[in-house]
Specification:
Structural class of chain A: alpha/beta
Helix content of chain A: 25-40%
Shape of chain B: globular
Oligomer: heterodimer
Largest interface: A-B, 39 and 47 residues
Distance between the termini of chain B: 34 Å
Largest sheet of chain A: 4 strands, parallel
Shape of chain A: globular
Chain lengths: 199, 549
C-alpha cells in the first residue's frame, strides 16, 4: 500500500513551504513497505490524531497573548480541533512554546516536556524560542529552545500573527499524517537522550 | 527647591547638593544615609520610594533613590555610593520604605551590593548558583562560568541577613525562609493563573495562607544589561517586550526620556498620535485584565467578550503600525509614519462600540453573586501600605492613593485634556476591578477629545522632529515617568557623555510598576483562603516579563 502526500482540507498542497521535507518522509515510509491492513489503520489513527491536537499552555511572554487570541472568537482554534488547551503536560499532545526561555526556566521546560505522554510534538513559537530572537546577546537567555528539547516546527515572528500560528499548526498536522504509528512511534524503545545539533 | 535644600541641609550637614534634571540631588555617605532617610520620611513627608537604581560608576558602586512626597508630588533624588568594590555594603532602607525589600534584592543580584539590615538577602532574578553579578562593569561573560544548568536549584530555603553591631562590624547571620514544620506548597512557574511564569511558595495552615514567598526570574532576560551595548534608537525595541500590554506607553516613556536629554520638542501631531496610541493600549490592556480576571474565577464567557472588543483595537494598530503587538511605532523625535487615513474613523468607532458593550460586561460579571462574594472585601490593601509599597496604577487608586502620573506630573499633552482620576477607597479586589472598568470610560473620553483635536490640527503634517543621525547625550542622568496601564513606569537613564560616534547608554534602569505590585502579594494574601490567592493576584493584575525584565 502506498502512503500518499498529506492533504489539508483548507489549503492546497502547493501553497505550503517545505514540501521536500514531507516528501522525503513519504519516500522513507514507502521504501520500508507498508502492509495494507496496518497501513489503513495507521491512516485512520493519523487522521484522528492530527485533527484533535491538544495544546499544552506554556506561555512565558508576548506570544502567549496572541495564543489567547487564537482561542478567542475571531480566530477560533476549535476549527482545527485544537481548542482544548491543557494545563497539565500529561494530557497534552504538543507543546507550543511561546516566549523566551531563560536559564532559570530551562530545567522546568525540560521536565514538563518529559512529563508529556508519547507521541509528543513541539512547536517553537516566536523568534525567542527559535534562536533567542532579540535577546540573543543576553547572559541568561537560551539561544533557541532546540538546545534543550527537540523541535518539530519552527515558527518565526515577534510575535507571530495568529494566521502564522495556524500555518504552524497545519504543518504539524501534515507531519503527523505521514508517520507510521503502529509498530513505529508507540513501540517500546529504549529512551534516547536528546542531543542538540551543532550550530 | 532652595527651601528643600535648606531643610535637608539642616537635617544632615554633611550632604552635598546639586540640581540635575530639574530635581534636587542629594549626595550622602552611607554612614549618614539611614538616619537621613528616616528624617526625610518623617519630617519632610517623602513617603514613597519611586525608584531604586543600582549603578556601577567604575571607581565607586552605589544606588540612586528617587523619593516622592505623595501630598505635594515633589521629588528628590539621593545618591549613595561606596568605593569598596570587592565587598560593597550599604545600609538597607527596607525598614523605612517597604518597597525597598525587593528592589534591594534586585540591586544585590545585579551589582553584588549587600544591604546591611535587610531581612532576606537572597538573589532575586538569577539562580542562586549563579557566578558573578551581571550588571557590574567587570562582569565576566564567559559562558563556561554560567552554562545552561538542567538540574534544579538547591538550598532554596536558605537566606541570610547582615547585621551591624555597635562597633561597626558586619556579621552574616544565616536563616531560613520557612520553618521546618511548615506546610509549604509550590505554585507555578507553569500555572495558568499566575498569568505567566511567576512562582509562589505558599505556606499553609489548613486552607489559610500563612506566608507567600515570591520566586521570580523565570523570564528574566537581562534587558538592562543588553541596553548598555546598543545605541539609543536600538534600545527602544526592548521597552515593548517588557510589559507587552503597555507597549506604546513604555516606548513613549523612553522616547520622552531621550528627548528630554537631547532637548527636542516633539511636533504636536506626533504628540497627539502618541497619546491616542497610549490610550488605545490602556483600553486593550484593561480589556485583557477583565478577560483574565473573569476567566480565573470560572467565567469563561466573559473572556470571549473582552477579547472580541480587543480585536477592534488590534485592527487599528495593525492598519497604522503594521503589527498587532510589539508595534515599534514611536521613535525619538516623533512617530515612525503617519496614521492610516481611516485612523480617526476607526478610533471613534472603537470608542462607540466599547462604550456600548461596557453595560454587557457589567451585566455578565459585576453583579454576579459569586463574583461579588469572591471579590468584595477580599485582599484589602490599606492606603498607608499602598504608599509604603509604592503601589501605583489602578491597584493604588483602588486604595485611595492619588497616583495617576497623568495628573500628578502631567506629560505629553495630558494637561489639555478633561478627564477624571478614578479613585476608590475600599482597597479590595472588587475596587481594583471597578477602577479598571471606570478607567476604560475615562480613556474613551480622552480618545474622543483627542480625535477632535487631531482633526483641528489638520494641515500640520509634521510627524517627527529632525534628530541627529548619531545620538549623543551629554554626561548626566535623567528620570522620566509615565502612567502605564498597570502603574507608574519609570526610566532612569545615565550617560557618560562618551564622544565616540555610536554612543551607548551607561546605565538604563526600568522601574516597572509590576515589580512593586508583587511586593504586596504576601501582605494581601495572608490570612486569606488559598483560593483567594488566585482572585487577589488576578485583581492586582501583573505582567510577568515586566517584573523580570
Amino acid at each position: 500500500m502506498e502512503v500518499k502526500k498529506p492533504k489539508i482540507k483548507s489549503m492546497r498542497y502547493e501553497d505550503f513551504k517545505d514540501n521536500e521535507y514531507i516528501e522525503s518522509l513519504v519516500e522513507q515510509l514507502n521504501a520500508s513497505g507498508v502492509n495494507v491492513v496496518v497501513g489503513k489503520l495507521d491512516q485512520l489513527l493519523n487522521w484522528s490524531r492530527s485533527n484533535s491536537l491538544w495544546p499544552f499552555c506554556f506561555g512565558t511572554s508576548c506570544c502567549a497573548i496572541e495564543f489567547m487570541c487564537l482561542g478567542a472568537a475571531r480566530y477560533d482554534m476549535a476549527r482545527f480541533g485544537a481548542e482544548v488547551a491543557r494545563n497539565s503536560p500529561r494530557q497534552a499532545d504538543y507543546i507550543m512554546c511561546q516566549g523566551t526561555i531563560t536559564y532559570r526556566m530551562a530545567p522546568v521546560l525540560k521536565r514538563l516536556y518529559e512529563q508529556m505522554a508519547e507521541p509528543k510534538y513541539v512547536i517553537a513559537c516566536g523568534a525567542c524560542t527559535v534562536s533567542g530572537g532579540p535577546f540573543k546577546n543576553s547572559y541568561c537567555v537560551v539561544k533557541g529552545v532546540d538546545e534543550i528539547i527537540p523541535v518539530d516546527v519552527y515558527l518565526p515572528g515577534c510575535p507571530p500573527r495568529p494566521e502564522a500560528m495556524f500555518y504552524a499548526l497545519m504543518q504539524l498536522q501534515r507531519k503527523i499524517k505521514v508517520t507510521k504509528f503502529l509498530g513505529g512511534d508507540n513501540r517500546k524503545e529504549k529512551r534516547m537522550e536528546y542531543v542538540p545539533a551543532e550550530k | 527647591m532652595a527651601d528643600l535644600q535648606q531643610q535637608i541641609a539642616a537635617l544632615c550637614p554633611q550632604a552635598q547638593f546639586d540640581t540635575v534634571d530639574n530635581l534636587l540631588m542629594v549626595t550622602v555617605d552611607d554612614a549618614q544615609w539611614h538616619a537621613l532617610a528616616q528624617q526625610l520620611k518623617e519630617n519632610l513627608h517623602f513617603d514613597q520610594l519611586s525608584c531604586l537604581a543600582g549603578v556601577d560608576w567604575k571607581d565607586s558602586i552605589g544606588v540612586v533613590y528617587y523619593l516622592t512626597n505623595t501630598d505635594t508630588q515633589e521629588m528628590v533624588h539621593v545618591k549613595v555610593a561606596t568605593t569598596d568594590r570587592e565587598h560593597p555594603m550599604l545600609h538597607s532602607v527596607s525598614d523605612i520604605w517597604a518597597v525597598a525589600n525587593y528592589q534591594e534584592r534586585e540591586a544585590y543580584d545585579f551589582f553584588g551590593i549587600v544591604f546591611i539590615g535587610h531581612p532576606d538577602m537572597r538573589r532575586f532574578f538569577l539562580r542562586n548558583d549563579w557566578v558573578g553579578h551581571p550588571l557590574r562593569k567587570d562582569y565576566d561573560e564567559n559562558p563556561e562560568l554560567n552554562p545552561i544548568r538542567l538540574e534544579d536549584e538547591m538550598n532554596e530555603d536558605d537566606t541570610c541577613t547582615y547585621i551591624e553591631d555597635e562597633d561597626g562590624n558586619v556579621k552574616k547571620v544565616d536563616g531560613k525562609v520557612f520553618e521546618d514544620d511548615e506546610y509549604v506548597i509550590n505554585f507555578g512557574p507553569q500555572h495558568p493563573s499566575t498569568h505567566g511564569v511567576l512562582r509562589y511558595r505558599v505556606s499553609l495552615d489548613g486552607e489559610m495562607v500563612k506566608k507567600v514567598d515570591v520566586v521570580s526570574g523565570y523570564i528574566h532576560r537581562g534587558i538592562e544589561k543588553m541596553c548598555e551595548s546598543l545605541t539609543y534608537p536600538q534600545t527602544l525595541l526592548y521597552t515593548e517586550r517588557m510589559d507587552y500590554m503597555a507597549a506604546h506607553i513604555n516606548r513613549h516613556c523612553l522616547c520622552m526620556c531621550i528627548e528630554k536629554a537631547l532637548g527636542i520638542e516633539v511636533p504636536r501631531r506626533a504628540e497627539l498620535i502618541r497619546l491616542m496610541m497610549d490610550e488605545l493600549m490602556r483600553l486593550s490592556s484593561h480589556l485583557l485584565s477583565y478577560g483574565c480576571l473573569t476567566m480565573d474565577q470560572g467565567a469563561t464567557t466573559a473572556f470571549f467578550y473582552g477579547f472580541r472588543e480587543r480585536e477592534l483595537i488590534y485592527d487599528i494598530f495593525d492598519r497604522t503600525c503594521g503589527a498587532r503587538m510589539s508595534m515599534s511605532y514611536s521613535t525619538i523625535g516623533g512617530v515612525v509614519a503617519d496614521v492610516h487615513p481611516d485612523f480617526i474613523k476607526d478610533v471613534r468607532h472603537a470608542c462607540d462600540v466599547i462604550e456600548s458593550k461596557m453595560k454587557e460586561y457589567h451585566q455578565l460579571f459585576t453583579g454576579n453573586v459569586i463574583a461579588r462574594n469572591r471579590m468584595v472585601g477580599v485582599g484589602e490593601l490599606r492606603k498607608e501600605d499602598a504608599i509604603n509599597y509604592c503601589i501605583t496604577g489602578p491597584s493604588g487608586r483602588a486604595s485611595g492613593v492619588h497616583c495617576d502620573v497623568r495628573k500628578t506630573h502631567p506629560y505629553s499633552l495630558y494637561s489639555e485634556f478633561d478627564f477624571d482620576e478614578v479613585i476608590r477607597t475600599e482597597g479590595d479586589s472588587m475596587a481594583r476591578y471597578m477602577v479598571r472598568m471606570d478607567e476604560m470610560l475615562q480613556s474613551i473620553k480622552i480618545l474622543r477629545q483627542a480625535c477632535d483635536k487631531f482633526e483641528q490640527c489638520e494641515g500640520n503634517e509634521y510627524i517627527a522632529e529632525k534628530v541627529p543621525k548619531m545620538i549623543k547625550l551629554p554626561a548626566g542622568h535623567w528620570y522620566q515617568q509615565v502612567e502605564a496601564s498597570r502603574g507608574a513606569f519609570g526610566v532612569y537613564l545615565e550617560s557618560d557623555g562618551d564622544p565616540k560616534p555610536f554612543q551607548k547608554p551607561y546605565r538604563m534602569h526600568f522601574q516597572s510598576p509590576c515589580f512593586n505590585l508583587i511586593g504586596v502579594v504576601d501582605l494581601t494574601c495572608r490570612d486569606n483562603m488559598i483560593a483567594d490567592l488566585i482572585t487577589i493576584t488576578a485583581s492586582i493584575d501583573f505582567v510577568i516579563p515586566d517584573i523580570d525584565r
